[in-house]
Design a protein that fits this description.
Layout: H1 2-14, E1 21-31, E2 34-39, E3 44-47, E4 49-50, H2 52-55, E5 69-80, E6 87-98
Parallel strand pairs: 4-6
Antiparallel strand pairs: 1-2, 1-5, 2-3, 5-6
């Protein structure tokens, strides 16, 4: 049992922690497989993926969702490029709440 706890602790410490972040941003639209937002601070945000649960409430391909303010929760995933073998960051929207 003691070995099992040590092994579990070791595995959990080696796995990367994914932390969700939240911003308030205006949705600018979808183009070239990317969802574009502008933060309240003026910074641009680009997301490559959207969780299925978000699609249940919002169709980000519909023009009626553009130019609206949202609370956007997201994670940054590490992806592997199959062609080069390099890793890169991929931004995924995990939750979306319409503000106005």
């Amino acid at each position: 049992m003691k070995n099992m706890i040590v092994l579990l602790t070791l595995l959990l410490s080696l796995s990367p922690m994914v932390q969700e972040q939240t911003i308030t941003a205006t949705y600018n639209g979808f183009e070239d497989d990317t969802y574009y937002f502008s933060g309240e601070d003026g910074n641009p945000y680009e997301f490559q993926d959207v969780d299925d649960s978000v699609w249940e409430s919002f169709d980000l391909l519909d023009e009626s969702t553009v130019d609206r303010l949202y609370k956007v929760s997201y994670t940054i995933d590490q992806e592997l490029d199959d062609e080069t073998g390099d890793t890169y960051e991929s931004y995924r929207i995990t939750k979306l709440v319409l503000i106005k």
